[in-house]
Amino acid sequence: LKEYGEGGSDSEDDNGIINVGNGFHLYKELYDKLYRHQKEGVLWMWSLFKKKKGGILGDDMGLGKTIQVISFLSGMFDMEKIHYVLIVMPVALVVNWENEFNKWAPGINVTAYHGTSKRERERSLTKVQRRGGVLITTYGMVVTSWEQLGDKDGRKFSWDYMILDEGHKIKNPTKTTKGVYNIPARNRLILTGTPVQNNLRELWALFDFAHHGTLLGTARTFKMEFENPITRSREKDATVNEKKLGQEISEALKKIIAPFFLRRTKAEVQAKKNERLEGNEKEQRKSAQMPNLTRKNELVIWLYLTQTQQKIYEDFLELDDIKELLMTTKSPLVALTVLKKICDHPRLLTTRACAQLGLHGHDELDEDMLEAPEALESAATKIQHVQDHILIQESGKLIVLVELLDNLKSEGHRCLVFSQSRKMLDIIQKLVTNRGHKIMRLDGTVSKVADREERIQKFQTDDQYSIFLLTTQVCC
Question: What CATH homologous superfamily does 396-475 map to?
């Protein structure tokens, strides 16, 4: 903590507020609940504010980035350093942020700018602009309403802080990125659990936003001065001098961003905790103790295609008539999409394609039916009469998945299953339901935040649900 200026007074004022270091004041009751790395995070944000700089908090998921931000904002509001804060996040996180504010800083006025009612949204915005507080909104709202969020009574309105949760969403030039750039804010902060150090272009995009374009120059100059020489040094045919230059420039870049980038991994936090607590009873009494962190293991399983998948895949690559059948337009992107569908499950292809490829259950369609508009829909919508064992044997992924889910259930585990495709979830849902699993599902068809939260709460509180099926975009 010394790095960020801890060493304040333990004496409370009449309101129970203490100086926790470097002139930052916070309720003692709140401060005492924070783990050591969270206290460091709060003081780090305070150090950025004093320098009038933005930053990126890139802690691993589970280390409490939300709590650190709320604690920091609590102190800032109490010290009257800020009055208006805008936090932008994926829609699935809105309820969580509201709950965390209620738990950690119930005195802060928190209002959501979200939902279908334009009048309600305007009322929420006006309330925060007049009384002060925190306005929570989503990336989707920013795309459509950035002008309103930067306006008050026809004049430009500037937020004291603009904070982006899951801020890596602005790594590419999109409407979302344009929207957040166009909302005036004196201070900017990004939260992301996704490591950004390894992709230089993404790194530039995030720091360009956080620092109002003042840290790393324009995209063009950054590419010339940093990205090109560093990238070149990593290539196999790079010369000794190119490797040396790339290393030097990489080190220089790390030094530039270091004060404005705070990332702690679970392993690092756990190791430091063990180091400090060895025989140090005073330390144990002084801070809230971080529980032992469970390790997240990522296992990538390489699977074989089934004979059906392999034949369709090879025919698509080699035979023009199969290409013509499976592709609506000649495009490399469309071709990759088709190949991906084949690898997931052939029935993600159109009904017409499945029929002409001879897949069971679609081989009896007559020519008139094949010319109908419905024939261009995914065959996954017409699987009711296809036997489960056939659906499983047509996909290498399903052969493994259904057995894995059965085994995990028998051992008392509950599982989240993600897919990029709703149609793939339809197939999985049919199979696992018929195998005795009770499932909950959440995809893009559930648009209301309250409905999403209800399903999440139901799965979390009812052990009878063994599987939660979700699309990967459900948290956006």
Answer: P-loop containing nucleotide triphosphate hydrolases (3.40.50.300)
